[in-house]
Each structure stands twice: as structure tokens, then as C-alpha cells.
Write a structure and sequence with these properties.
By secondary structure, this protein is an all-beta fold. It is built from no helices and 7 strands. Strand 1 (8-13) and strand 2 (16-22) form a beta hairpin.
């Protein structure tokens, strides 16, 4: 697993792939892998060492407070595959 996804907890629920949580130890740039359909509520909450997040095309929902208390977060980018 590469450095960008080792921090992520992903759960499959029927046809959906949900990014449930990012480890509080995560740092720097996070690239969410293609195929994720949802970012769960509080997924990045408290990840105060991440600086940017790249969200792939196909993400349909981002839960509440997904990026709460991410003090170093400078950018969230949508990318197409």
C-alpha cells in the first residue's frame, strides 16, 4: 500500500466504498483512491498534520464535519480520473 492510502480506513457497504476514517497520524498530502463513493462524517476530523486532500471523481457524498480540526489543511482538490 502506498504512503497516500496507508492512513485510510475504507469500508464496502453493498456497492459503495466509504472512506470511514483517516488516522490522526496522517501527514502531508492525502490522495483518496479512485473508486471511493463516499467520505464519511468526521472522516478527517482531528487530522491536524494533513496539508492537502485530493478527492477522486465519483465521490457522491461528503459527511458532516469531514474536515473539522484540520489546522494545517490548505487545499481540497477534486480530480478526474
Amino acid at each position: 500500500m502506498d504512503n497516500n492510502t496507508k492512513w485510510l480506513t475504507i469500508e464496502q457497504v453493498e456497492e459503495r466504498f466509504i472512506l470511514k476514517k483517516c488516522s490522526k497520524e496522517a501527514e502531508g498530502e492525502i490522495i483518496i483512491p479512485a473508486g471511493i463513493t463516499d467520505i464519511g462524517a468526521d472522516a478527517f476530523n482531528g487530522c491536524d498534520k494533513i496539508t492537502s486532500v485530493h478527492i477522486p471523481n465519483g465521490v457522491q457524498t461528503i459527511g458532516g464535519h469531514a474536515f473539522l480540526y484540520c489546522g494545517e489543511l490548505k487545499s481540497v482538490k477534486l480530480r478526474s480520473e
